[in-house]
Amino acid sequence: MKSILVTGGRIWTGDVSQPFAESLLVVGNRFAAVGPREHVTTHPRAADAFHVDLSGEGVVPGFTDAHVHLAGLARQSWEVSLEGSLSIEEAFARIRARAKEVPHGDWIYAAGFDETKWPVQVRPTREDIDALGLPNPVLLRRICAHVHVAGSKAMERAGVLSDSGVFLENEVQPLTDKMNDESRGKALSVETLAKTCRKLASWGTTCVHTCSAASYGLEEDLSLYQELFDRNDLPVRIVSYHDSFPGYKVKSGYGDDWIRFGGFKVFLDGSLGGRSAALTEEYADAPGQNGRLNHDSESLDRLLEESFRRGIQVQVHAIGDAAIDQALEAFERFAGRKSPLEFPFRLNHVLVTRPDQFERLARVRPACDIQPIQAVSDMDMAPARLGRHRSASAYAWKTLEGLGLLLTGSSDGPVDTSNLWISVDAAVNRRKLDGTGQAWRESERVSLDSALRLFTVNPYRVIGQGKRIGRIAQGMSADFCILDRDPFSIPPEDLHKVLVEGTFAGGHLTWDRTGGLPESLNL
Predict the structure, then answer these.
(1) 3-class secondary-structure state, position 70
(2) Cβ proximity of 23 and 35 under 8 Å
(3) Is 222:192 a contact under the CB 8 Å cutoff?
(4) Over the stretch 224-281, which tens digit does the pLDDT of each residue have?
(5) Can you tell me the distance from the alpha carbon of 385 to that of 352, in angstroms, rounded to the nearest whole number?
(6) Of the candidates 195, 193, 199, 248, which has an alpha carbon nearest to the alpha carbon of residue 222?
(7) How far is the CA of 16 from the CAs of 387, 427, 453, 472, in angstroms?
């Protein structure tokens, strides 16, 4: 069995009984010793271990992205990226350029437009796409993934019709089903998925809770992960959630430490940027609009009842305060029901919260999946959508933490970057990386210790694996990252600059930035 000895760094363990350590020893796939150097180096297996002697750099547990669309990330190389486009003209210029590269009739899927960043903040329409005069079916996806816009050729191909070409929420499924079927092997492959997983490993990620949202065009293909695992090329652990129930009898946790079934995902509303998040009051910048709820209370109860009966954890997407109300009311109706799961409900996003909802959250105690990066990416948009009074209690990470709720952190990639060090920076600083502007709702910043727990300890607790993985402690699975600096010794505004020198998952080396570690440690 391989053994690795790490000394000379500052190890943040995530273990409250021993928050920091000087050394660690890995034997096989587990930590054999963690603590003072003189204690760890006298372990019988330390003498023959590969020795990594650091000079004060940091070591942390492997990161988990607790809500991401991994197949969506992998498909980005096939999509036309509209992210960062500063006008509709620039976005359409990128689409024209792609049309010159692909055969006539091939789908063009252009993702990531954000009209709030354009001088004229108007969403594209079918007529705009048709005016391009392209011989291809064209489908656009807003950055939030809750709004799609299709050209006439795309709608004809899928057999659907819309005067505007705008499709909200799961209305787009006939289009994405047709596109995915006709683009099979091009949009997503085992090679693009492997490349994406290696990129995540380069940022210190050792596990993802990925969401297969087939009804939104973000479907996962678990057979690809199996193929990567079988050829010993899967560097991140996969916990998979789905927006439909499996057709076979299985409970959350089915699988192993590398690929397992997480649970069921239900979307109660849409996005704030797309104005489809369900609000109790109208949008401040769009009088008469309140967003929309995707389910009534009766249908939601039926979904939760089936989940309880089958032992399946539920991840509930709720962004607007009306959707959070609906979720809390449903959770309250299940209060007192016994479940084999410590956390039968995960409340995802929890962005637009009212002060009166905090007491209910503390009483019901769902695990909350938050995206710290969105407090930064939305800081120019959200106040306009919500107005001053609602903004004052939104994106309330510190408040949720103070309620004693279990918080897990995620990127929601490809909606936002999946480099989780940028998310750590956002949780601690809540300000733009370029230093412009002020921190938004500075009182809701969290400590670095809390920010790291969002992405290490807590995601394993929420799936019932917190006693086995997620901390650097004796007997735990050896998932950890060696950093180029100690995050506790640098200015907080430099957290996004942290680089990962080496990533280990289950004692296997999954990323080596400089190539200085021996190949014998590789996955």
Answers:
(1) helix
(2) yes
(3) no
(4) 999 999 999 999 999 999 999 999 999 999 999 999 999 999 999 999 999 999 999 9
(5) 11
(6) 193
(7) 40, 20, 11, 11
